[in-house]
Amino acid sequence: MKTAFIYTDDFAKFKYSDTHPLKPFRLKLTYELIKSYNLHVLKDSLFVIPKYAEEKDVLKVHTRDYIDVLKALNSGVDVPYSIQFGLGYGDNPIFNGLFDWSMLVAGATLEATKLVLDGKVDLSFNISGGLHHALPNRASGFCYINDIAVAIKYLIDSGKRVAYIDIDAHHGDGVQHIFYNTDRVLKISIHETGYYLFPGTGFVEEMGENDGYGYTINVPLPPYSDDDVFHYAFDRVVAECINRFKPDIIIAQLGVDTLYDDPLAHLNYSIYGFAKAVKKILDFKIPLIALGGGGYDIACVARAWTVAWAIMNNVEINSKIPQEYLKNYAKYGFEDDNIFGKQYSLVDEQKKKLLKVVDKEIEIIYEKIIPHIKDRKL
Ligand SMILES: [Zn+2]
To answer: Does residue 92 sit within a domain?
Structure first.
C-alpha cells in the first residue's frame, strides 16, 4: 500500500495566542516523533510539502465576504464587523498570519485529497487538517476555513461518493451543516454528547434533510465513555453504514481530544483504543484521506498520531519513545517513555450504565436512519 504524509515546519510558525489551547506547534512535535522512529523514510511512503489552497477552491464552501474578512485580518489587526463572522474573541482570535495558516491547512488537505483521487497513493495523512467546525460564513471552535468541506466538495465535483467518519470528541457540525442536504456524502460522527460539550449539537435526531435525509449519522456518547464504549458504538454503526453506502473514498477526522488526558473534553479513550479505530477504518480497504483534528495535550497528540501513522504503514513500533527525542521534547509533557500511555477502563457497573444509554441511540439509528442509506444510483 502506498501512503503520503503532508507536512511542513511552516505549520508551527503560527500561534493563536500564548494561552489558546490549539497549538500548531503540536504538529512539529508529532513530525519530530515520527522522524525519531524513522517513519519518514519508509519505502512506499511519500513526504509531501503542501502548498497554500487556492481561493477558488475554498470559495466553493465559504462566502466571498467571509474570505475577504479573513484576508484582511491576516496582519493580525482587527477590522470592523469581524465579530459578525465569529472572529476576534475567545475561541477564534485574530492573530498574525490567520489567513495564511488557514489556507496552508486547507492546501495540505487538498494535496492529501488529490494524491488519493489521482491514485498516486492509497492513503494520505494531513495532521494539520480536520478543522470541522468552520461554517461557510463564520469561524467556530478554533476553525476558520473548513478544510474537510473543501476537500469533500472537490471530491464530489470529481464525481466521487464520499464517506466522512469523524471520531473527534466534538461533533463535526460544520461538515454536517455544509452537506446536510445531499446523499453524495455519508456523514458519521461519534462524539461526546452535545449536552455537555461544544458545539451542543450532534444528536441522533439530526438525520439530514431533503436528498440528504438518512445520510447524517450522529452517535453521541455520554461523558466518561472509554475505549469499550466507543468501540461498541463504532462496531455497531460504522461498518453497517459504510457497507450500505459503498463510498469511493473515506475522509476521516482523527481528533484525539477524546483521550483521557485531554483537558477540553470528558471522554476516556486511550491511545490503544484510538489506534484500534484507525485500524478498523483501514480495514475497509477503501482509499483514505486521514486528517488530524482536536487534541490539546500536545504530548498525547504527538504520541497518538505517530502511532496512527505507524499503523497506516503497517509498521510495528517499539513502545519506548527514542531517548534522543525525549532529550529535546520531554519538557512538552511526556510523562514517561511509553508511546501508548496507560489503558483506561471504567468499572463494569459504570460501563454497563453508559452502554445502556448508547444502545438507545443505536436503536434509533437502526430504526430511523440506516434503512434510508442506499447504494449508488447509476
Ligand atoms: Zn474536538
So the answer is: yes
